[in-house]
Amino acid sequence: MNGFLRNERGGAARWIIILIIIAAGIYGYQYFKKTPRYALIQFKKAILFSNSQTAQTFMDFDSVIRGLSESVTNGQPDEVVKKRLVYEIDAPGEKGFFSSVKRWSVITVPVTVSPDQLTATAQPVEGTSVTLKKTPEEYWVISAIQLE
């Protein structure tokens, strides 16, 4: 095959093969961006690099805050809790609520998608459960986190 790609008549075949490989890579990446695992990876990256905008893209703060226990929210209104969590994400120091996210194994963790393909669950570390939901745009966002 090497000779086929190098001779004059095979020059076009070489470019066709290269284009097919590039197209497959682009398609694969676009498909991967619409998986729950991608959302977990991006959320962990947002925590590690203190980027609250990315975190807000991949986490539905309103749903997550509604699911938090009273011990975490301290009886504060949802908007106050959201501001506190966003501030914590942006702070480059040690994360309080999100400290276990740094230990998440987002690449190897099994992700279970529901039969209707609308929700998914994962346990990135022992004692932590993450629920994700699919948006109308076919992307996944974290809708609930139960941390250890």
Q: Would you write up a description of this structure?
A:
The chain is α+β, with helices and mostly antiparallel strands and 148 residues long. The protein folds into 2 domains: 2-31, no CATH class; 38-146, Nuclear Transport Factor 2, Chain: A, CATH 3.10.450. Helices cover 47% and strands 14% of the residues. The protein is built from 7 helices and 4 strands; from the N terminus they run αααααααββββ. The chain has helices spanning 2-6, 11-32, 36-48, 52-58, 61-66, 70-73, 78-90; strands at 111-113, 119-122, 129-134, 140-146. A 4-stranded antiparallel β-sheet has the order 1-2-3-4. α3 packs antiparallel against α4.
Which helices and strands occur, and which strands form pairs?
Layout: H1 2-6, H2 11-32, H3 36-48, H4 52-58, H5 61-66, H6 70-73, H7 78-90, E1 111-113, E2 119-122, E3 129-134, E4 140-146
Helix pairs in contact: 3-4
Q: Can you summarize this structure?
A:
The protein contains seven helices and four strands. With 148 residues, the chain is α+β, with helices and mostly antiparallel strands.
